[in-house]
Amino acid sequence: MNRQPDRMTCKDDRVRTEDVLAAIATGLWRWDNASGTVTLDGEAARLLGLPAEPVVLPEAAARSRFHPVDWNEINGIVNLAVAEGTLAEARLRIMDEDGRVLRTVRSRSKPLQNLTADGRVDYELIGTIQEIAEPQPGTTAAHTPITGDWRRSREAFLLDAGRALAEARSTAEVLRVAASLSMPGFNPDGLAVFGVAGDRLSVIGHHGHGPGDESPFTDMPLDTDYPAAEVVRNGRAIYLPSPEDYRRRFPVTWPLARRFGRASWAFLPLIVAGRTMGAWMAAFKHPVSFSPDERSVLTTVARMLAQALQRAGVAESERELTTGLQRSMMPQLGPEIPGMTLAARYVPTGGGLQVGGDWYDVIPLPSGRFALVIGDVQGHDVRAAGLMGQLRIAVRAYASEGHRPDAVLSRASRFLSGLCSSQESDPAEGPDYQSPRFATCLYVECDPETGLLEVARAGHPDPAIRMADGTVLMRPTAGGLPLGIIPDTDYPTTRFTLEPGETMMLCTDGLIETGGHDLDTGWARLRAILESGAHDTESLEKLADLLVQAVHGPSSHHTTGPLADRREDDIAVVLLCRESADCGCGTPLSHPARPARRTVLTVAQAEPERIAGARRQVRELLHDWTDPEQVDAAELMVSEMVTNVLVHTDGDALLVAEAVGELGARRLRVEVADASDELPHMRHPGEMASSGRGVLLMEMLADTWGVDPRGAGKSIWFELRERSKPAEDQAR
After folding, report:
1. Name one Pfam family in it (predicted).
2. Domain 335-420+437-550+569-578 CATH assignment equals 3.40.50.300
């Protein structure tokens, strides 16, 4: 006996899910907060009082169909569901255009959390709407808390509010958070925070009012018959459920409040440590009965708001104090220097009191020259800032007396060592506060007419030079120990010339190492900024901003270094540009001829380790040379020439390297001078010999080379002519 096919599984007569849901008065909806649209099927549209057909509505149109009190409670329910990973369930009243309740529905939705491109969190609700058997036709929209578990939504709201207020770091942020709070079931549309200044009431901030509406309340005496003034006087909250209550209790100031058209008011004291510091007003357009639960929520919010305002006020006072302290210790760049352009920046550490030990200074000298000083006292605390201020004054005094750079740093080291050792220890201040401190420093004496720089360095990073064509070199200089370690320390002086169109950068290690960098990776990051800003920045000020922003700006997290330590340090940077017709600090070159690149370096007998610095100088000078083999050859010959001077003579080696000409057709000339009269000669070293091949290398690698006798010594030189890329490389 053959069975008939089941109707429910028949392909031609299948019961659709939509029909089943419509039969039990259940609709489907999708609420996309990111796009601001609501998608309804036919049954959901009917339940919302719309034609029974699928529709996509703007968020505002769909929201107008819900009772405003019920709608305000949805935020807390959704946040709680997201936190617990559960469904968001709510009972909602559907309204018509006249404010009457059409029906009551139950919504069960799954909130999906989406992260937008700008980092903002949006929600997408997908769920059902089902009519429940509690119709209330013809009733008005009176306030009745019917949505879900009101107490659970209140707890979720208070948790969110407490977290948001705790994260606010300024009074303005606290007021913004207070204005954005959506309270469960009775969301206020007007807020005001009142403060106390002597015997007067002031408005700290408000929301939901127009500009100028706060004028009558800004300077109100505390004995005025006004709710906020009475709350401040007696420290007790005042609840006014209706306009009649307001008019009866405060007839004098009722005309001031009547024009805002509110239906209920709550005035609560802002109390911190038993002291009333102000009052908070929450005003409502719809009537609020202020039940015990509602008063509990308002009281809790007022307490959190008072604590947040107190913390913000203390933080702002500390920031104002430390900023003023730091600015008072930082000098102005002073009058303009003929032929020179200066720019400087200082950024305090990202934590603590926003003070530190970094500083810079520009000092006019009796000789008509000027001095640039940049330094860093150990530490990021008040003591470091205090020592920095004293050390800066001492360095300025020594420089103003006319001492040479090495003498200025020697005296400063003795001063700092004596200053730290003379301080009396106080156990209450802790061992770290009384521990000896040292400071790094770079002192540059500059002649603005000739561009001659005399540099003395005390454990500080070397200066960097950006040439007129954009090539950037770290300029090695002789140096000594940081200030304050050994009272009597010698600081050798390095001389070189800042050519027209060149820019010198002095900085503290915070600019190099902030973001987890070491000296090498941090310098590579700064070099990229300096080279990219060679011809497209508007001024030296713009270049200074770019350097600080790359290290300390919003995008600096893209250039974090390889180290795990991410502690930030103070940042100080000074830029000095020697002006020219084709200035390299931002003005485009006015003619096609490229300026010469030139670097000078002295390698002393006692510092053979600086041979590596000489090789690096030549390689950086030829960073865009077309033939890498020529760069390797130049580096090898420089190393051989400088080593021969240190091995076969008793004097120092002076290296001068210069590249001139257009890209692809340049000429490199390198000279190494010494004080010996002995000329190099060809040797024939054996297979196992460790020396004697210098002249052979010059013959094989250099295009031309030679030896020029001088009055006291000689100069060995070689030249390389840049070879263009092979034809097959150019075609790629």
Report:
1. GAF_2
2. no
194-225 pLDDT, tens digit each: 988 888 888 888 877 777 777 777 778 888 88
CA dihedral 674, 675, 679, 680 (to 10 degrees): -30
Q: How far apart are the first and last CA of the chain?
A: 81
The upper half-sphere exposure of residue 699, i.e. CA atoms within 13 Å in the direction of its Cβ, equals 8
**Same fold: 17-132 with 158-321:** yes
CA distance 722 to 717: 17
Q: Where are the alpha helices (DSSP H) in 64-118?
A: 68-84
Domain 17-132 indexed as CATH 3.30.450.20: yes
| 8 A C-beta contact, residue 553 and residue 347 | no
Show the DSSP H helices in 235-350 as ranges. 243-249, 254-258, 292-329
CATH code at 158-321: 3.30.450.40
pLDDT of residue 386: 79
Amino acid sitting at position 662: E
**Every domain of the chain and the residues it spans:** 17-132, 158-321, 335-420+437-550+569-578, 596-678+691-721
**Cα–Cα dist 398/305, whole Å:** 53
Interatomic CA distance for residues 708 and 103, integer angstroms: 105
d(CA 456, CA 425): 33
| Domain at 596-678+691-721, CATH class | alpha beta
Residues 104 and 452: their CA atoms lie apart, in Å, by 86
At 59, is the secondary structure helix, strand, or coil? helix
Which amino acid is residue 251, in one-letter code? P
pLDDT grade for 597, boundaries at 50, 70 and 90:
confident
Look at residues 669, 667, 674, 677 and name the one whose alpha carbon lies nearest to residue 642: 674
Cβ neighbors of 364 (< 8 A, separation 6 or more) are 334, 370, 400
User: Is 642:608 a contact under the CB 8 Å cutoff?
Assistant: no
CB-CB neighbours of 668 under 10 Å: 24
Residues 93 and 106: their CA atoms lie apart, in Å, by 9
Q: How many CA atoms lie within 13 A of 609 on its CB side?
A: 3
How does pLDDT run across 175-184, given as a tens digit for each residue?
Answer: 777 777 766 6
Closest residue by Cα to residue 384 from 297, 506, 510: 510
User: What SS3 state is found at 490?
Assistant: coil
Query: What is the C-alpha separation between 533 and 92, in angstroms, rounded?
Result: 60
